[in-house]
Specification:
This protein has about 400 residues and is an alpha/beta fold. The protein is built from 19 helices and eight strands. A hairpin with a 5-residue loop joins strand 7 and strand 8. The chain binds a DNA duplex (22 and 22 nucleotides) through helix 16, strand 7 and strand 8.
Length: about 400
DNA sequence: TGTCCACTGGAAGGGAGGGCTT
DNA sequence: AAGCCCTCCCTTCCAGTGGACA
């Protein structure tokens, strides 16, 4: 072989000018169609610069409606202005999907406030109260305004209850040198319903709803990013339109639209083509579906896999709208086949709910009169994806269970 | 109108696992 | 080492429920 194997690809002209324009972490210098939301945040947070306490806020909206990016943008400007004016503005951004317990949230903020010589706050072990005390001490020491952003806060409340929000929203009563305000970001419009009324009234002093982008707005956003990130004349007419339309179907998720466009261009590049057309977008769409589902399927815990496996098995047999009872029977059978104890029906019921939340199945409660009340369960995994073999990877037991699936089908 | 089915989903709590303090 | 504390996964118990059917 002649030359280095990387040379051919390396020499190829990229269709991108700047891939970063499509990064999820990319912070654009302007945010089209979010002027209202930016304005709402600014009007409230300006108090931080006036020496007052900004109201706590709750930001709602579907995924990809710009909540996080707007917040970052506004806080960035706030810090900058604070610096110019000699006001101390501390901001903390916590994603409650990763940091999902009371202890860890407080620990994370306290760690960000650590100075040289402070003893580290351990990941676990201390009573939460002690971590909270440490946090208050450090906040007092730092002074100024503290703005705590809790992204995906609904996640935290589901898992850990509203204790933490209660504690955080009461911080101002115990801080003597410093002020604190909370910005909660949620995908779920109704999540305050699960909160203690005292907490919800304190937290949602100021609500901002981010409406989903409509197709034409997504088109504008894509157009703007494309002109930053993609070489001129590369995109066929209709590419941006299609990306926008597909994303608008997905409840107006701008992030998804950006991913679609980026992957479409990559698809064209991989084929050494110089143009991107709608076929590339279709390819990108199925790639995206596959990429979303695969890692989740592979890393599901064993029993979760077995439950999903049971659903897939029933569907392979042509059954739709399976009831919880049927799922459980197949599942218990599969457990028997591979010699492990099945979990209780109660637990499996929760597992079904979890599978529903992560979007691998669709479950809805129905009543069949005397036939009882139950869930109707359907898999939500695109047909093109072979769920069973994906789940079998690295999981000998599932593999065994799926080898025995024809026996199991006898029981259905 | 009341009954009754097949669950649902909340509450409480056990116990293993990880880590800190004394 | 003993005594705490926190989280995670799970079980047990049980009141509650939507709607077809008698």
């Amino acid at each position: 072989m002649e030359g280095n194997i990387f040379e051919k690809i390396l020499g190829q002209d990229s269709l991108f000018i700047d891939r970063k324009a499509f990064d999820h972490a990319f912070e654009p210098s302007r945010l089209p169609h979010r002027e209202h939301e930016v304005d709402a945040l600014v009007r409230n947070l300006v108090d931080a610069l006036n020496g007052h306490i900004p109201s706590n806020m709750l930001l709602y909206g579907v995924p990809g409606s710009g909540k996080t990016v707007v917040t970052r943008f506004v806080l960035g400007q706030l810090r900058q202005k604070g610096k110019e004016m000699g006001q101390i503005v501390n901001t903390y951004e916590i994603n409650c999907r990763n940091v999902d317990t009371k202890y860890r949230v407080v620990q994370t903020i306290a760690s960000q406030l650590a100075r040289r010589g402070d003893p580290p706050v351990p990941f676990t072990g201390w009573p939460t109260d002690r971590v909270l005390e440490t946090l208050v001490m450090r906040m007092n020491r730092a002074g100024g305004v503290h703005i705590i952003v809790l992204d995906e806060v609904d996640n935290l409340v589901d898992r850990a209850g509203d204790d933490l929000l209660y504690a955080l929203t009461s911080l101002n009563t115990v801080l003597d040198n410093g002020r604190c305000s909370i910005i909660g970001i949620s995908n779920d419009l109704h999540f305050t319903q699960h909160l203690d009324p005292r907490v919800s009234s304190r937290l949602s002093q100021e609500d901002v709803v981010f409406h989903p982008y409509v197709a034409t707005e997504i088109q504008n956003i894509l157009g703007e990013r494309a002109s930053m990130g993609i070489r001129e004349g590369v995109l066929d007419e209709g590419v941006i339109k299609l990306c926008a339309a597909l994303a608008a179907q997905e409840h107006g998720d701008a992030r998804r639209a950006l991913d679609l466009l980026r992957i479409s261009v990559q698809k064209s590049e991989q084929r050494a083509q110089s143009k991107v057309d709608t076929r590339h977008v279709r390819l990108a769409q199925s790639q995206l579906e596959y990429d979303q589902v695969t890692p989740v399927l592979k890393t599901l815990p064993l029993h979760q896999k077995l439950v999903l496996f049971s659903i897939c098995l029933n569907e392979e047999n042509g059954l739709r709208n399976i009831s919880t009872g049927e799922v459980y029977r197949t599942y218990a059978d599969a457990c028997g086949k591979i010699g492990i104890e099945p979990l209780t029906t109660r637990r499996v019921s929760s597992l079904l709910n979890e599978l529903d939340t992560i979007g691998l199945i669709m479950a809805r409660n129905v009543s069949k009169g005397r036939g009882g009340r139950s869930k109707q369960v359907n898999s939500a995994i695109p047909k093109a994806i072979d769920a069973i073999s994906l789940m079998s990877e690295n999981e000998p037991l599932i593999n065994e269970a799926s080898l025995g699936k024809y026996h199991l089908q006898g029981h259905l």
